Amino acid sequence: AQPAKLLVLPGDGIGPEVMHEVGRVITWLEKNRGLAFEITEDLVGGASLAEYGEPIRNEVIEKARAADAVLFGSVGDPRWGHVGFEKRPEVAILKLRQELELFANLRPAKVFDALVDASTLKPDVVRGLDIMIVRETVGGIYFGDPRGIETLPDGTRRGINTEVYTTPEIERVARVAFEMARKRSNHVCSVEKCNVMESGLLWKEVVTDLHAREFSDVKLTHMLADNCAMQLVRNPRQFDVIVTGNLFGDILSDLASMLTGSLGMLPSATLGAVRADGKCAALYEPIHGSAPDIAGQGIANPIAQILSFAMLLRYSLNLQDEAKMVEEAVSRVLESGLRTADIMSEGMARVGTSVMGEAIVREL
Amino acid sequence: AQPAKLLVLPGDGIGPEVMHEVGRVITWLEKNRGLAFEITEDLVGGASLAEYGEPIRNEVIEKARAADAVLFGSVGDPRWGHVGFEKRPEVAILKLRQELELFANLRPAKVFDALVDASTLKPDVVRGLDIMIVRETVGGIYFGDPRGIETLPDGTRRGINTEVYTTPEIERVARVAFEMARKRSNHVCSVEKCNVMESGLLWKEVVTDLHAREFSDVKLTHMLADNCAMQLVRNPRQFDVIVTGNLFGDILSDLASMLTGSLGMLPSATLGAVRADGKCAALYEPIHGSAPDIAGQGIANPIAQILSFAMLLRYSLNLQDEAKMVEEAVSRVLESGLRTADIMSEGMARVGTSVMGEAIVREL
Ligand SMILES: CC(C)[C@H](C(=O)O)[C@@H](O)C(=O)O
Ligand SMILES: CC(C)[C@H](C(=O)O)[C@@H](O)C(=O)O
């Protein structure tokens, strides 16, 4: 078999440290499962700004296009707070999403039994929680035109952004959500603000039509974004799959993550359209940020990055068994009582990034 | 003294029932505190649609303009789900906000000691919580043009909404937030998505400038909306006053409310600009909706409506003592163990709407 071509982009802050632990998992899979990976690494975010004066080079985008999958760390560095809107580190991830048309961000929010107490919510409310948020990521107000800041004749300034969604953009992400639901608990909740936004009204109509045409076996409900934020706090286990636009998805998926109390545990995948070669572009990244405050200290939790790699095995390489092996190794390490600082609790053994990485490989 | 002119708009669902209990409080204040109120009542929302074919008449808007304050119940009725975007019951509140330029929505999220267990969050996380969200309510994506749904030549449909904020719109709401903070814990957190939206970039700049010019005694911090949603779950007591735009405010204020676990307890105020007569237009409403599922059963919690009236006493009529009396009567009733169904817990005495209203008047 051809080796799997991965582009690895560790990025800023704790990105390189936690990515290093994925390296160990890859080495183990090569040695013990006969897999072959062809890995290219490059710079993004603040690291790229420092070296090349831009948050991501076109060359890197081309490499991403050529790869079977991109494994991303995290971007964001307070030292680049002054570079202006066009050059901020976040542009790296926004450009990758847009150029590769990575339109469906899958954000699981899952509570591990061993970590149910890490949540600020009562254990009874979050035990067993398992939500999948499917967030649209190349449309909506993030990318709509017109946008910018203009100065009116009287000196007043106006900031403008435009939310735009078209029927095909809504359909393709809703399709991902319905297909996801079929493999889970068969319920999709579509979220918008159709009571104040026409783009939300169209969203609701398109999802409803697609459901009637192709997915009537799946349960479909609708919810306003403000109510969804409330329901996620009130009774999060009512949800299975949530599908929503870029901006609501940004907020609601972060909210859902925090219900688990352990951001350092949560991976994500962003999938694109199926390409000519039958594969689809895909990017995998932990949901935590670059955490500059703890970078370089060897204390960051590598699990979200490792579980992002497990998602890569599952969705891009169709290696279901290996994905499961990695996920189960993580669970066992947690059950054995090892904890990085972010998920530490009484009676557990506190370890650093590399001890955690080694322990996971040992469990494999 | 002139009687205070109030326009009372009970609206739909449980609105009329809970408003009825405010009537008792008003009667008590007239008899025992020598206050005089001149009260006009009218229809809004589904109730107005049924009678007049529109969610709010211009006549009602004129009455609102002439009043010292508007006491609003709630709108929304599933029987009017089919009337179309222009006529939906929500238009009543949106029009009142816009026509009276009610630009600053004050949304307290406060945990009553007696109800700390009502929250889905751990008591240690929410005990003593007291946040004030100041949400801009006449700008942003709710009202920006262009908006609508258009059909392209190839049949694709596009939904469009526009987020617009100008410097004076941002300044005036930020000013309310800073002034609020001075009477509280002196900390404002300004929330936007300046990393992806230029309107958020302008927001941040204007708030920062105003702070430097007029409010440098107040602590100012900035936070991205997605992070704010997380922080509200992780450690909500880090906040004092949060100031944000219309859409983020809609979501984050509902999220913050739910942290208290008792929506039936939470009032809100929406304030306008100072008018020629030195007063400012203002509307007071509970944050809960019309709750059609329990309407007409006499079991709704009237406390949020009564506390909205207390806010009216404080902000529109400058009756600080009477506002405090009402608020303290509510606290005492809760401490005495009376509970409506929505806040019921073991060992407490379950009562209906009118018994709760009577008990509060008795405590006065
Ligand atoms: C980095 C930033 C632009 C991004 C977003 O807002 O989409 C992040 O918050 C995310 O959710 O992936
Ligand atoms: C009724 C509706 C239009 C309204 C809004 O979205 O602003 C409501 O959710 C609110 O928060 O007051």
TrEMBL record, chains A, B:
GO terms for cellular component: cytosol. Signal peptide: none annotated. Mg(2+) binds at D226, D250, D254. Residues 5-360 form the Isopropylmalate dehydrogenase-like domain. Pfam families: Iso_dh (PF00180). It catalyses: (2R,3S)-3-isopropylmalate + NAD(+) = 4-methyl-2-oxopentanoate + CO2 + NADH. It comes from the Bacteria. The record marks Y142, K193 as: Important for catalysis. Binds 1 Mg(2+) or Mn(2+) ion per subunit. One of its GO terms (molecular function) is NAD binding. SMART domains: Iso_dh (SM01329). Its EC number is 1.1.1.85. NAD(+) binds at G289, S290, A291, P292, D293, I294, A295, G296, Q297, G298, I299, A300, N301. GO terms for biological process: L-leucine biosynthetic process. Belongs to the isocitrate and isopropylmalate dehydrogenases family. LeuB type 1 subfamily. Homodimer. This is 3-isopropylmalate dehydrogenase. The lineage of its organism: Bacteria, Pseudomonadati, Pseudomonadota, Alphaproteobacteria, Acetobacterales.
